[in-house]
Amino acid sequence: MTPLPLRMLGDPILRKETTPVTSITGDLRLLIDAMFTTMHAARGIGLAAPQVGRLERLAIVDIKDEPIVLINPEILASSGMERDEEGCLSIPDIYGDVDRPSTVSFRAMDREGNVFEREVDGLLARCIQHEIDHLHGKLFIDYLSVLKRRAALAQWAKEKEKYPGNVRVLTAEEIATHRHRAEEL
Ligand code: K1U
Ligand code: ZN
């Protein structure tokens, strides 16, 4: 499956609210598969539909070979607070420390349409919160202090020149490296 082009900071779709998914169709499953291919080729641990130009309320995460599909995810409860570094496939090479609840419980639907609930912590909790934010038009840079956000945006002003039209098309080399790694598993 071919990776999808990634939308970069500056593309208005990243600031839009998504629309809840009402039925699990073959097209939705194809989108999920294409998102996994894209996320793995881009070396990410999560990906939300707006990052590939879609407004379905859908995200995926994969930390340590545990792929999770999140359809219409919602946080039910959270506790604790932890500061850690985040990155974003839509803002490559920009990182920042973000405070987030360290443990969250959430409800979502999987690719079969089954509703499930889970409590998670650590990097998985952080990644799921980051992806749910994407589904509501929010980005990790929104949590930075005014000074740190200004510095991040100044750095991005240079980086973004690599992405004409606010789109990142993965190179054949990036895709081949991902294929090679996938075949080894
Ligand atoms: O949604 C995305 O943009 C994917 C993003 C997920 C994420 C990473 C780190 C913390 C929270 C959410 C990425 O996969 S960025 C690339 C990455 O693998 C990474 C970057 C920093 C720390 C850990 C992983
Ligand atoms: Zn992101």
Describe the fold and architecture.
The protein has helices at residues 26-41, 122-134, 146-159, 172-184; strands at residues 6-7, 46-48, 58-62, 67-79, 82-86, 96-100, 103-109, 115-121, 167-168. With 185 residues, the chain is α+β, with helices and mostly antiparallel strands. A hairpin with a 5-residue loop joins strand 7 (103-109) and strand 8. The protein is built from 4 helices and 9 strands; from the N terminus they run βαβββββββααβα. It is 30% helix and 26% strand. The strands form 3 sheets. A 5-stranded antiparallel sheet has the order 2-3-4-7-8, with helices on both faces. A two-stranded antiparallel sheet has the order 1-9. A two-stranded antiparallel sheet has the order 5-6. Ligand K1U is lined by residues 43-48, 85-90, 126-127, 130-131, 134.
Kindly report how far apart the N and C termini lie: 17 Å
Beta-strand percentage range = 25-35%
Q: Provide the succession of SSEs.
A: EHEEEEEEEHHEH
**Which ligands are bound?**
ligand K1U, zinc ion
Q: Which whole number gives the mean pLDDT?
A: 95
Q: Helix fraction?
A: 25-40%
Oligomer: single chain
Helix count equals 4
Instruction: Let me know the largest β-sheet.
Output: 5 strands, antiparallel
Look at the helices and sheets and give the structural class. Answer: alpha+beta
* Total count of strands: 9
Give me the side-by-side strand order of the main sheet.
Answer: 2-3-4-7-8
What ranges have pLDDT less than 50 throughout 5 or more consecutive residues?
none
In angstroms, what is the radius of gyration? 16 Å
What is the general shape?
globular
